[in-house]
Design a protein that fits this description.
Length: about 110
């Protein structure tokens, strides 16, 4: 089976497919906070913040994979271009640790 540490079941309890922000295959993965409760993986994910869409819809937060074409230089311009985000309705911030946060203003 895959129950040894060379297989794919070697993460100790956290579900990699979860949207709850516990995508930590290795204990060494650096995380950064995204919204009130999520933690995204610094090297491979950005924090996506979606505002609105309707009055009272509030704000949603999610960790989204950085496009593979941007993993070598994960900066705002590469990620925004790769995802087709327009600066008219999306803004990107690069934090001091290199963490990316993209805010989308839904129509």
């Amino acid at each position: 089976g895959d129950d040894d540490d060379t297989g794919d079941d070697d993460d100790t309890g956290d579900d990699d497919d979860s949207s709850a922000g516990d995508d930590d295959d290795s204990a060494a993965a650096e995380l950064f906070s995204c919204g009130p409760s999520l933690s995204c993986t610094l090297a491979t994910e950005h924090c996506q913040i979606i505002h609105g869409g309707c009055m009272g819809c509030g704000t949603s937060y999610s960790c989204v994979d950085i496009p593979s074409t941007c993993l070598s230089t994960p900066d705002c311009s590469c990620v925004m271009n790769a995802l087709g985000f327009d600066p008219v309705w999306a803004t990107c911030e690069l934090g001091t640790l290199g963490q990316l946060s993209i805010t989308i203003y839904a129509p």
